[in-house]
Each structure stands twice: as structure tokens, then as C-alpha cells.
Amino acid sequence: MAKTMAVNAGSSSLKFQLLEMPAEQVIAQGVIERIGMDDAIVTIKYGSEVERLIDDSEDEEHITLSKNGKGKKYENVLAIKDHQQAINFMLQKLTDLGIIQDFNEITGVGHRVVAGGEWFNHSVVVNDSVLDKIDRLADYAPLHNPANAMGIRAFQKLLPDALSVAVFDTSFHQSMPEENYLYSLPYEYYTRYGARKYGAHGTSHRYVAMRAAEILGKDLKSLKLITLHLGAGASITAIKDGKSLDTSMGFSPLAGVTMATRSGDVDPSLVYYIQEREGLSNDDMLNILNKKSGLLGLSTISSDMRDLLDVQDTNDHARLAVNIFINRIIKYIGQYIAEMGGVDAIVFTAGIGENSIPVRQAIIDKLEYFDVSLDVEANKIRGKEVEISTKSSRVKALLIPTNEELMIARDVESLK
């Protein structure tokens, strides 16, 4: 069987998963953090019962491994100067550990790319033209696309015979109608600059929607779903007829609901007002909106939902941050139910969605008037597929751990 690698290259990190295809069996997975530093951290988990990496925060510096004592784990701290060296080290270590015998066993590499603009409405085989477009879309995702392109080039150099595939976060949302993706700005800004909503987390939303249909035993095209990807980055998507109808993130991943350090939706006039009075540059303001706002800015203590839940009974700022996080999610859910003319199921996924029992409960409790009630006992679980609504609920609530790596590997296989 062929081996396919799913890759997510960040500016200072490299996450990967190696799968046996088409059996879809995970052989190994890992992460290299702090690339470019003398104390880069390498973690590789492999063996007969590999568990997926759980990224509660989506922050490059805070990645943990689920622990149940099964399988094997390799860890090391060493100097890694760049992504090329990181990939070379990782591939060599996979060989040293006996996970692969030869680099050529890897016949396909799928790369997560955040921004695909309007050029890409599906995954594509990478060629010079595709790489050029990924580079040109860097303004749409300046923290991600350059790193994604760097990872692609580094893998192509070391695995020149492997099929290289780009899987775009935005492609799933290319099915949105104009009334949902266009902003109420002069139309010429759309035609000149591509000023529109693109969304993000599309691979995750696509995966959990497919699994939801399978769990419910129904055709995806017959369902109205709202998928909640709730991590450090959070987005909500309305899925109708098997397609993305609307999504909370916008031109960039900054828009939408309150996130760990991102503000979500803010009146642009307020942004300008604060800039003038604080004497901030555009870059300064964007840094505040992306890295100092959200749960961190509101609570003044932490961007991590777990920290806030621990102290919300005694800390007013923490309680306020949690309440605003829930409030914004409820607003989007209500909007999307109205847009679709109803909903069949609400799906929770990603770090907070999969692991925060109280957040799921708070959201469902506010939706009871839509005929969905929480099964409190079923909700007492983390990171496993389960229906958390009562059997009598007309609208179902599901917990489905996302698996973007599997979707990436499937897309690679489909293009071979």
C-alpha cells in the first residue's frame, strides 16, 4: 500500500501525519516546533495504536499529545535552522525509527494551504503555476500562505517523485452565493482586489459534515447543518445541500466570532477611532486585533478557555469573556438557522468544541427553543464521536473530532 503524508507548515512549526492509503491507517504523526531556533522541539508518535495529535489552542507553541500509554513516542530538542532542515530531519527519523524503509515509500504529500482565493475551489496537484498563485495570495493570509509555500517547496526538493497536492482551507466555501460572500462596498473593489468573504477551516467543516451525515444515516445533500469549529481560531459554517452556504470568517480569519486572541467582528469605524487616539499604525492595530484581543483582551488574563472556566466564578473579566464567546456563537447559529430555513444538526469540533463540556452545554442550553436538548451524561466526554442531544430532540447535537489530515490524504489519493 502507498503511504501519503498530510502536512501543515506554519511559520515556525511543521505538523504531519503519515497514513497508509487507501486503508486510511495512521502510521505516524508528529510536530516540529520552534523551527529556526536552537531549541526546536521534535515529537513523533508511532506504533500499532497511534492517537491523533490534539491541538487545543491551534497556536504553534502549544501542542500536546493525547496520552494513553499506547504506541511509541520519540522526543528530542535540537537546533533546526529552517523548514528544509526540519523536513530532512523528520524524514530521516522516520527511517531511523523503522517507520519507513525508504523515502520513496511516500508516494503523495498533501499540503494544507490557508488561502486559495477564487482561483481554487478544490484541491489541486501542485505545479509552478499553482505555487505562484499561492505566493500571490500571501496578502490574504500573510501568516500562513508564505509558510505553506515554503513547506511545499521543501518537500518537493526531498521527495521529487511524490505527488504534491495543495488542499485549501477556503475551497469548501467557494460554493457560497454572491449575497453571502460579497461585502456592501463599491463593486469595483471586488473586481479589482478580490474584496469578499473567503472563510477558513473549510477542510474541517467538510470532514465533520460528511461524518455527521454518516452518523445520522442520511444523505449529506438532504441535510441542513451548522458546524462549529471552536478552537483558538473559531468559525461557524452553514451547510445546505452538502455545500457551504455561509461562514463566519471573512476576507481573513480575523472576522466572525470571538476567538482566543482575535477580536472577531468589530465596527471598522471603531478601529479607526482607536488608531487615531492611540497613535497606532495599521500594522499595530492589526496586531492588536489578531493577537491581543478576543478572550485574552476581554479577560485580561488568558487566551485559553480552560483557564477562564477555572476562575469564572471568582473573576468578573473571565466570566465576561466566556459569556461573550458564547453570545457571539449563538448569534451566528440563529442567523444561519434563519438563512437555511431550519437546521437538522449542530456539530461541535476542534479544541474547545471537542473538549469543553461546559461550553457545549452553555450553547445547547440557549438553543432549546429550536427543539434541541442536551443529554447531560452523553456530554460528559471529550474527543470522541457522540450524539450529545437527547433522543427526543428534533435537532441533533453531535460531537465529532475533526480529521483534516485524513481529508488531505483522501484528496491526494483522488488526484493520483
Question: Short summary of the structure?
Answer:
By secondary structure, the chain is an alpha+beta fold. The chain is 36% helix and 23% strand.
Secondary-structure topology with pairs:
Elements (H helix, E strand, L loop, with lengths): L1 E8 L4 E8 L3 E9 L3 E10 L6 E2 L9 E2 L6 E9 L2 H14 L9 E8 L10 E2 L2 H9 L8 H14 L4 E6 L9 H4 L5 H7 L8 H15 L7 E7 L3 E7 L2 E5 L20 H11 L3 H10 L2 H6 L5 H7 L4 H25 L4 E5 H6 L1 H9 L20 E2 L8 E4 L4 H11 L2
Helical proportion, percent range: 25-40%
Question: Strand-residue fraction?
Answer: 15-25%
Uncertain stretches: 53-69
Number of helices: 14
What is the structural class?
Answer: alpha+beta
How large is the radius of gyration? 21 Å
Mean pLDDT, nearest integer?
Answer: 90
Identify the strand order in the major beta sheet: 7-4-3-2-1-8-10-9
Terminal Cα separation, in Å?
13 Å
- What is the string of helix and strand elements? EEEEEEEHEEHHEHHHEEEHHHHHEHHEEH
Shape: globular
For the sheet with most strands, the description reads: 8 strands, mixed
**How many runs of DSSP E, i.e. beta strands?**
16
